[in-house]
Design brief:
The complex is a heterodimer of chains A (419) and B (338). Chain A is α/β, with parallel strands linked by helices and 419 residues long. Chain A is built from twelve helices and twelve strands. Chain A has a domain of 283 residues: Rossmann fold, CATH 3.40.50.300. Chain A has an eight-stranded mixed beta sheet, with helices on both faces. Chain A has a four-stranded antiparallel beta sheet with strand order 2-1-4-5. In chain A, strand 7, helix 7 and strand 8 form a beta-alpha-beta unit. Chain B has an eight-stranded mixed beta sheet, sandwiched between helices. Chain B has a four-stranded antiparallel beta sheet with strand order 2-1-4-5, covered by helices on one side. By secondary structure, chain B is an alpha/beta fold. Chain B has twelve helices and twelve strands.
């Protein structure tokens, strides 16, 4: 609980250093591990992926680097879903690919059950890959259009030599059944299926080798709204059934909240905040997380009227030329000249299990250095709403009980007095 | 809400069919709605529901598609755009009716500097001289929040970020003071923090310029904050229409109900499982004879499979195309989950 945090954190600057010995600790249950360590299935340590920018036609030479992922450390615990959110270009997909070694890390380690994948190659890596799979974003581009469903789903079995010819077919049927595709369609081609069905086929392919860990890279963003819920429910059901561990990469914050146990927020190649789901969405500390959450439109005109988003100015800077100091200081509503634009904040554990990289966060003003409104508050986990429309407390009496903090002008449950 | 006083656009029984190898695709099937001056209307639906084709037809661009058959009427300020000759539609398109496209990367000509893209409309429609048009363009660019507009006007689209390009597109759309702005998925290609910027800009400008806006999107959140009236489309038809607040609070069509329930919300308690709509959107070239939503609907009865329900009034300013609308309207007091 003290400031001395394993590995990831060096001497924090200014307020952050003094702040980490947070006095008040609301019992955050089982969370006491650092981003690296604990009951981790995957441990990512100091992972960086830099893509070279080259120049010259005959003599190509490196003139710079895109720092897609820049010194990122976290772990994924057995059986959990870790959400990884951020805007496009923040490095979330590259992080997912680097974990599976689809992109080789420039520096850093990726430990799977203690073995460093970054230094494996060839057959050794392939054997490890059996235990981790990926579900891709685009169900149109990620299935080979010239292969039948049986070939697509059966290929991993063949590569890893898990089944003979007849066993393979049997297993494919079983897998298709599991993901909700009629097993009799196994001789069809991908173009005969809709987007949602294709994504199910992609999921069946990932499940074929019975992995423990699956990287879901924006698995629903290419799908229609009414199909998304089906795929999310399927992923959750499979997780329960097979005890899977997910790294769920997405830009849709409400979906990530729905599916994740813990959430990491990335900005320009770095993790800026990492916490338990309820904590991150309820008591976001980093100004970027706060702005990001407040920017999500809510499908309810009345909630929208009350919502006062923190609208960030400007665009995300280029990862080829990130700003010095805190990468976010150019857009941060709370940035302090002379501190944020000079020193890069490190990811520090501000409260047990709640990590943030910001100079301005101290335990004293935990959980808020809120840049703006308080509408988006929090939302303790509770029973699902039975009916979408009629739950505003000011409109229907009986719905009020389910409303929780969303109704009326109730202050956020996060309080603010905790620390 | 339904600013009936000054009807700007009135779409009557619009149908758009496309001939294809698999048969005739009924992209839009008997759609009627109207938009008042300065009104903000949201047209919501999934991909393939006909919302973009409706916009294309309003702009008169369907006439350029050789395989499209358009019937019905699109009356803009009393004139039927479908009956007008192309040269007269050209005068309206871009001046009175402007469009913001989804993808700012592909919809701005990459070989022209943005200054040329902007002055083109001003010179052609408003007859401004090149100098005046340039001055006005710079003014517009600063209005939409592009810093150093005077210099940036010489830049090409690729020199702008996605959000900036969408700002440029908005500036182009607003350049001739249109009375109707069609925004087709204006923020879908953008990140959430940029989306917030663009939505705020569009709200602000539409009130400043007094333009009516039709926001076409699949994202219920986008229209919830912006539009006063909502049209929900499914398989080429409008299935529900009404003022935004009552419609979101209490949808009357099972599809709208399902859509709203299937989206996780940040301001609500976390549910264990999402309530999803079963099945798949229908194939528009092989629509079922009855209600297109019947195969996915939990209320469907034999009646739904035989005939398509008409769009009938269900309350103040509200219409719904469902045989079982009474059951859903009753729920307003009852609160029963399906």
């Amino acid at each position: 609980m003290s400031g001395a945090v394993s590995g990831a954190v060096s001497g924090a600057v200014g307020g952050a250093g003094s702040g980490v010995s947070a006095p008040a600790a609301r019992a955050t249950a089982d969370v006491a591990t650092s981003p690296t360590g604990g009951d981790a299935l995957i441990a990512v340590e100091g992972l960086s992926v830099h893509f070279p920018i080259t120049s010259g036609i005959i003599f190509r030479h490196k003139v710079g680097a895109v720092r897609a992922v820049d010194d990122v450390s976290f772990d994924v615990r057995k059986g959990e879903t870790l959400g990884l959110v951020g805007e496009s270009g923040c490095g979330k997909s590259t992080t997912g690919r680097a974990i599976l070694q689809l992109v080789r890390p420039t520096t850093g380690r990726v430990l799977y059950d203690g073995a460093d994948l970054a230094h494996l190659g060839g057959g050794a890596l392939r054997r490890q890959r059996r235990r981790m799979q990926m579900i891709f974003q685009d169900p149109y581009a990620s299935l080979n259009s010239r292969m039948t469903v049986a070939d697509i789903v059966g290929e991993p079995l063949k590569v890893h030599g898990l089944r003979d010819r007849s066993g393979c077919k049997e297993r494919v049927r079983e897998l298709l059944q599991t993901v909700g595709i009629n097993p009799n369609t196994l001789n069809r081609y991908p173009h005969e299926f809709s987007g949602g069905q294709r994504q199910r086929i992609g999921i069946a392919r990932a499940l074929a080798v019975e992995p423990n860990f699956i990287v879901c890279d924006e698995p629903i963003s290419a799908l229609d709204v009414s199909i998304r819920a089906q795929i999310i429910n399927l992923l959750q059901q499979l997780q329960r059934e097979f005890g899977l561990t997910y790294l769920f990469i997405a830009h849709d914050l409400s979906v990530v909240r729905h599916i994740s146990d813990r959430v990491a927020v990335m900005y320009l190649g770095r993790i800026v905040e990492l916490a338990d789901n309820a904590v991150l969405y309820g008591e976001p500390m980093h100004p970027y997380t706060q702005a990001l959450l407040s920017a999500v439109p809510i499908p309810d005109p009345e909630a929208e009227e009350r919502r006062r988003p923190v609208v960030l100015q400007g665009d995300v800077p280029s990862p080829a030329d990130p700003p010095p100091g805190c990468h976010f200081h150019t857009r941060c509503p709370a940035a302090q000249t002379g501190l944020c634009d000079l020193e890069s904040p490190s990811l520090a554990e501000v409260r047990p299990g709640h990590w943030a990289a910001c100079h301005l966060i101290t335990a004293e003003d935990y959980p808020h250095i809120r840049a703006g409104e308080d509408d988006l508050a929090v939302v303790a986990d509770g029973p699902p709403d039975a009916w979408p429309g009629d739950t505003r407390s000011d409109h229907s009496g009986d719905g009020a009980a389910l409303d929780g903090p969303a109704g009326g002008g109730t202050p956020p449950a996060s309080g603010g007095e905790q620390a | 809400m339904n600013a009936g006083s000054a009807q700007l656009l009135s779409v009557k029984d619009l149908s758009v069919d496309f001939a294809s190898q698999e048969g005739v695709v009924h992209a839009v099937d008997g759609v009627s709605f109207s938009v008042g001056s300065g009104e903000l209307v949201g047209l919501v639906g999934e991909s393939g529901c006909g919302k973009s084709v409706t916009a294309t037809a309003i702009l008169g661009l369907t006439r350029m598609l050789p395989n499209a058959t358009v019937t019905g009427a699109i009356e803009f300020e009393g004139r039927d755009l479908l009956a007008l000759p192309e040269n007269e539609v050209r005068e309206i398109r871009g001046r009175d009716i402007a469009m913001i496209f989804q993808d700012p990367v592909t919809s701005l000509n990459p070989v022209l500097p943005i200054g040329r893209l902007m002055t083109e409309g001003l010179e052609n429609h408003l007859g401004l001289s090149h100098t005046d048009a340039t001055a006005r363009s710079i003014e517009l660019l600063s209005t939409v929040g592009i810093p150093q507009a005077a210099e940036r006007i010489k830049d090409y689209p690729h020199q702008f970020s996605g959000g900036m390009r969408q700002r440029v597109m908005i500036a182009i759309a607003l350049s001739c003071n249109p009375r109707l702005l069609l925004a087709d998925e204006p923020t879908t290609a953008l990140d959430v923090t940029i989306q917030a910027q663009i939505l705020r800009l569009m709200r602000q400008l539409s009130s400043e310029y007094g333009a009516a806006v039709i926001v076409i999107t699949h994202d219920l959140g986008v229209v919830a904050g912006m539009c006063r009236r909502i049209l929900v489309m499914y398989a080429g038809r409008i299935v529900e229409e009404g003022p935004a607040k009552p419609l979101f609070r209490h949808p009357h069509h099972p599809y709208t109900v399902g859509l709203l329930r299937s989206v996780p919300r940040l301001d609500r308690p976390r549910a264990d499982e999402l309530v999803s709509i079963q099945g798949l959107p229908p194939d528009l070239s092989h629509l079922p004879p009855g209600c297109a939503f019947a195969p996915r609907c939990w209320l469907a009865t034999d009646e739904c499979w035989c005939a398509a329900p008409p769009l009938a009034a269900t309350g103040e300013g509200r219409r719904c195309a469902c045989f079982h609308r009474d059951r859903l309207v009753e729920r307003e007091t009852e609160r029963v989950a399906p």
